[in-house]
Amino acid sequence: MTTTTTARPDLTRRPARLSWRVRLRRDRSLILMTLPAVVLLLVFNYVPLFGLVTAFQEYDPLAGVWYSTWAGLDQFQRLFGDPLFWNAVRNTLYLSFVQLILFFPVPIALALLLNSVLSPRVRNFVQSVVYLPHFFSWVLAITIFQQMLGGAGALNHFLRNNDIGTWDVMTNPDTFALLVSSQVIWKEAGWGIIVFLAALAAINTDLYEAAAADGAGRWRRLWHITLPGLRGVIVLMLVLRLGNALTVGFEQFLIQRDAVGYDTADVLDTFSFYYGIATGDYSYGAAAGLFKSVISLLLIWGANKMAHAFGEDGLYRK
Amino acid sequence: MGNELNRRSFLNAAVSAAGLVAMGPLLSACGGGPAQRAGVGSEAALKAVLPAYVPNTSIKPDIASVAGGPDVLTNPGFLSYPTNRVATVSGVPGKGGKYSAVTPLWGTIPPADNAFYQAMNKALGVQLEMKPADGNTYNTIIPTMTASKRLPDWIQLPTWWNSQMNVGGLVGNQLADLTPYLSGDNIKKYPNLAAIPTSAWRTGAWGEKLYGIPSFATGFQIAGLLYYRHDVFDARGIKADQVKSADDLMNLGKELTDAKNGVWAFDDIYRYVYTSFGAPLKWRVDNGKLVHLYETEEFLAALDWCNRLAAAGYVHPDALAGDNANGNTRFYGGKTLITSGGTGAWNLADSQSGKAANPNFRRGGLNVFSADGKSEPRVYMGAGASIMSYLNVNLKPEQIEECLAVANYLAAPFGSAEFTMVNFGVEGTHFTMVDGVPTATEAGKKEVQAQTYPFLAAAAAAVSNPGADVVTKDYTSWQIANVKALVKPVFWNMNISMPQAQATADAGQQVEDAIKDCYHGKKKVSEVKDAVASWKTSGGGDKLIQWTNDNVLQKHGTGQ
């Protein structure tokens, strides 16, 4: 082997970096367009972060952030010794896990089903119908469930009048996880399919024709073309879902907390609300909120790392 | 038209929305920061500054007030609107000063600088800039104003938000001390203010000084009562006044519940029934020792009874599922026949809503009873007023006097010329008399809101439901029948500021949650007992009791 180096083209080399001045001039209009969004993000998402300091204080709204007593880690000490807090953590993780198993695959399946419907009229109709519940508030969604499945609802009215006994799904703590998952499916599955439908539309139809010509059946095409085409999006959604594992919803649990009891329905967000804000114990609520944020950050970072390890894009291309 | 009275139903709604008991500033909490706070003062010193009480006799009600014990008085009732509208203020109270005023409003905000405001400014002789703000978010806008020390000249701070708005920390610092102007005989300069009962002024007092100007003061303030469907009871021949014990009520549950037809006897009633079992409102003094409600046997007995009521299937399933928002709908629709709530529910608007669902609708109130049927029936009194306005500490003495003169105009008694102007506007422009009832015109509906000026100052409450005399008669006769049952709870009408740790324990969220689950039939009484035990030790309950004993009971007594 000779050591003479021929001028081998460097495939990894990027075009020469332009100076920031040139790039600024080139991207000027794009930057201007993102500016409002960036300002919005700064003002509403980053500036309020300074409020996190209250988690380390005995925050007094009258004295304000600057003059409240410094408490160090007292709030966290109290938090970690509070059985109600750990109960909320447990509920959050459990509900999150159940929803991951039961809810996550539903929009994908629904998107695949819808995609296989040929008549555009039927498809649009079905899509509109499954979309609709997303625009209902949780109050309304739960009222509908209560009217249908509650102790005085349609189902139990029927059962009672036929002397079959009653079955109050809405106040049963044991089946609460299933109940909230089905509520989420009813309300959000239709909305969730949008992103998958978009990914499906991006798959080159030539692939299907070629595969069909080669004699691949429906299932083989699904397995070898559709699912690999969706994989990137599925992984992205999974990363986001895992990062949000500690955010299972707020209103849904707030509204149904009295129905099944706090030991079943309290999640981290309702815990912060009831034991922080509602009792004026702001610092305690802030400490619980900060704990949740830190864990969420770790989760999303970990999930993203994992996605990269599997060769997927995750949240961003490495 | 129930302009003047709609406030009652909203008060009820607002209080339940705020998640607090409608008992006024019994205990109000604030954080433990460095700011100076006022609290309870010495009883003797406070007595010395409380304003003199000079009742107004110029307008005779159709149903006169009946006195119970000290500070207890039923509300007067009016069946017709007085035709002879007496003027109680001579001349124009103001001297041309300019003031801003912020009040909460549960309803549509009237247009700024409208004809009604202009007419009021003319009548008052001041430029009073009214800035009503949405009542539903009021508790969130006030802390931003107080944090930046930019309160308006005149502000309404409802007492159920005392702790959230930190009124104990604001009085003297941002809110003006009115003691020099109103104490003792000084108030006689403002005869309509002098006609407001003393207990209401006490509600606005912090640390031996007067700060708040009360609206709608009443000598009959209670948390609420049990309501029943008068029309349904009549039709079935059930006599409501024969309910004299908890057993009677339980039997009624069996008789009235017909689940197959979607009818249940009860909605949630625990909050208004536990004191019937002899439990204290919150505190009790046993042989000189301060005892918290959670520590009493009677409290557990009440819970046990409510738990059995739910288990027996006499409570509507939606109520057990925590859906309180539709409680009225269930009651109007006859899905529940016995419910509970504040006295604010008993008014014209309620009667109209009920009649829309069922033309026979008639609300009745169960008499106060004792659970065992033998003890003396008792219901605990609340503070003398819950709507309280304050003046800014930066106002000069002559400005404060001008505002108090304006308050005197606004506090004119029911049916007077000034009252008519404040509540209904200008005759011919904002209202016309139809069958003896002041009826709003289109302009009146848009511009005149009962929750603007009367929230700065108003006369003692009177019962009037034009066009629905039966409501006025039912309500006033219920008050008269039960006036003897009213007793003052421990720490009655005292404004107490406590450090954050005690305030958190006082809210007792974990116990309150367990209580709710228990009367909804989901937790056993023993589980509530466990929650109380952990509240006492790790939840700060014992420290709260100690603190309250040392700082309130030992220093200021029971206030009874």
Question: What's this model, at a glance?
Answer:
The complex is a heterodimer of chains A (318) and B (560). With 318 residues, chain A is an all-alpha fold.
Question: Overview of this structure, please?
Answer:
Chain A: InterPro entries: MetI-like, MetI-like_sf, UgpAE/MalFG_permease. Chain A: Keywords: Cell membrane, Membrane, Transmembrane, Transmembrane helix, Transport. Chain A: This is ABC transporter permease subunit. Chain A: It is a multi-pass membrane protein. Chain A: It is found in: Cell membrane. The complex is a heterodimer of chains A (318) and B (560). Chain A is an all-alpha fold. Chain A is built from 15 helices and 2 strands. In chain A, helix 14 (268-277) runs antiparallel to helix 15 (282-309). The longest helix of chain A is centred in the C-terminal third of the chain and has 28 residues, at 282-309. Chain A is flat, with a radius of gyration of 26 Å. Residues 1-5 of chain A have low confidence and may be disordered. By secondary structure, chain B is an alpha/beta fold. Chain B has 23 helices and 19 strands. Chain B has a 5-stranded mixed β-sheet with strand order 3-2-4-15-7. In chain B, strand 5 (205-206) and strand 6 (209-210) form a beta hairpin. In chain B, helix 20 crosses helix 23 (541-556). Chain B is globular and about 65 Å long. Chain A binds chain B through residues 58-64, 67-69, 81-84, 143, 146, 150-153, 156-157, 160-161, 168, 170-171, 173, 255-262, 274-275, 278-281, 284, and chain B through 19, 29-35, 143, 146-147, 163-164, 166, 169-170, 259-260, 262, 264, 316-318, 320-323, 335, 500, 503-504, 507, 509-510, 513-514, 516-517, 520, 522-523, 534, 538.
